[in-house]
Design brief:
By secondary structure, the chain is an alpha/beta fold. It has helices spanning 30-37, 123-128, 130-133, 188-195, and strands at residues 59-62, 72-75, 80-84, 89-94, 97-98, 106-115, 151-157, 160-169, 178-180, 184-187, 203-206. A hairpin with a 4-residue loop joins strand 3 and strand 4.
């Protein structure tokens, strides 16, 4: 079983071709939406109109030896996502994770990337909260109010889409919390910066959250 001990940070397209925008997408609006969700004079390390705790702002930190550049590691206890760089550092971002037992630790592959993606709730989400999700069972087009936000990284196991995502959120206040239906959420401006630097085919490791941590780990 994965534990946080396997990944401790010491300080503060490879496999698929680009996917054409589907018919429901509206690429002509993507740039304007990017501008809408990116603060004026945006500086990742200091810009904070969302009133996040400063530790959740993008920060370059030292990575442990032996971690593969390009891969993503999510520390679900600290609520950090690390993107490993080629120089032995990592870019660290604050995230929100799944609430309760909806968070799923494991080792995944980034099987797909999408800009301003459509969102469709899973059957399990609709069954669990029909009053919230049934109205979107046919899907919700991309846009600033879409739950997947500005960008999404799709987590696969082999060729199977797990329906887990690392994605932007129109609810930046949720960063640092257990708030989602299983996905890893990021501030939209932060995932816009991350997205272009992540290749499909890299590994994303989601480490266990508090409920999984034992005294021995």
């Amino acid at each position: 079983m994965l534990t946080r001990r396997h990944f401790i940070m010491t300080s503060a397209a490879l496999f698929s071709a680009p996917i054409a925008a589907p018919a429901w997408a509206n690429p002509s609006q993507w740039d304007s939406w990017d501008a809408q969700v990116t603060p004026a004079n945006y500086e990742p390390a200091t810009t904070n109109p969302w009133n996040l705790h400063p530790r959740f702002l993008p920060t370059r930190v030292q990575a442990n030896d032996g971690l593969r550049p390009g891969d993503i590691h999510v520390d679900a206890v600290a609520r950090y996502l690390y993107h490993i760089q080629t120089d032995g550092t990592a870019m660290r971002y604050g995230v929100a994770i799944g609430r309760g037992d909806l968070y799923e630790p494991g080792t995944f592959t980034i099987g797909r990337k999408a800009r301003w993606p459509q969102w469709t709730p899973t059957a399990a989400m609709i069954a669990r909260e029909p009053n919230v999700y049934a109205q979107y069972e046919e899907g919700m087009p991309g846009g600033p109010t879409n739950p997947l936000g500005a960008r999404a990284l799709y987590l696969y196991v082999g060729n199977r889409d797990t329906y887990l995502r690392i994605h932007g959120t129109p609810q930046p206040w949720s960063i640092g919390r257990r708030a989602s239906s299983g996905c890893v959420r990021m501030v939209m401006a932060h995932i816009i910066g991350l997205y272009d630097n992540v290749e499909t085919g890299v590994t994303a490791v989601l480490y266990p959250a508090e409920d999984w941590v034992t005294a021995s780990s």
